[in-house]
Specification:
By secondary structure, the chain is of the alpha+beta class. Helix content is 42%, strand content 34%. The protein contains three helices and nine strands. It has helices at 2-25, 29-65, 154-168; strands at residues 73-81, 85-87, 89-101, 107-119, 121-123, 129-131, 133-136, 140-148, 175-179. Strands 1-8-9 form a three-stranded mixed beta sheet, with helices on one face. A two-stranded antiparallel sheet has the order 2-7. The chain is flat and about 85 Å long.
Length: 181
């Protein structure tokens, strides 16, 4: 009978340990909303940036195709860096100066400075918190490829290159104009 109780106690301990592991493995609700919001936010931002690049390509194609001698065009824009969001930070700093006077006429001072930063969050309507964005930087274009029917004419190539430089602030060596087949 004693063996039965020992085995029963072992099973109870084993089951309790399993339940404890399950409870530990379940994420708490406090941190997941913020991480989920950041993940969702970055996915939305990437989609918005891809849409913005596509709109730029379409607008450039439409504008260039209306220029005399260019003909039909296809444009591809590559990005060097995506837009960046700068978040608000609370910055706290303190400094302390200590004067020391020795008994033999020596004196000295020392300074200590402490500073810390923490991100400022704003609450959304659903109660989640997202970082408070104070500034957004624009997308940075790496290069532009223009394939045009008039791409074999040097004057047309120069006009297209100058137009892209004026519109996007891209250096001439980052723009390639080719003849459409």
């Amino acid at each position: 009978m004693e063996k039965f109780f020992e085995k029963k106690n072992q099973w109870v301990i084993l089951i309790l340990a399993g339940l404890l592991l399950v409870v530990i493995a379940i994420p708490s609700g406090s941190g997941t909303g913020q991480n989920q919001a950041e993940t969702t936010g970055s996915a939305v931002q990437q989609t918005e940036e891809a849409d913005e690049v596509e709109r730029l390509e379409e607008r450039l194609e439409a504008a260039l195709s209306k220029v005399e001698g260019v003909g039909k065009t296809k444009v591809m824009i590559t990005m060097e860096a995506t837009g960046e969001k700068i978040v608000e930070k609370d910055q706290q700093s303190s400094s302390r100066t200590t004067q020391e006077n020795g008994g033999d006429g020596d004196s000295g001072s020392s300074q200590d400075a402490d500073s810390s930063q923490s991100t400022v969050y704003e609450r959304t309507q659903d109660g989640s918190e997202i970082p408070y964005v104070t500034q957004e930087t624009a997308l940075k274009i790496r290069g532009v490829l223009v394939v045009a029917e008039g791409g074999s004419n040097p004057v047309i190539v120069q006009n297209i290159t100058e137009a892209v430089m004026a519109l996007f602030g891209v250096e001439a060596h980052k723009i390639k104009v080719m003849k459409m087949s």
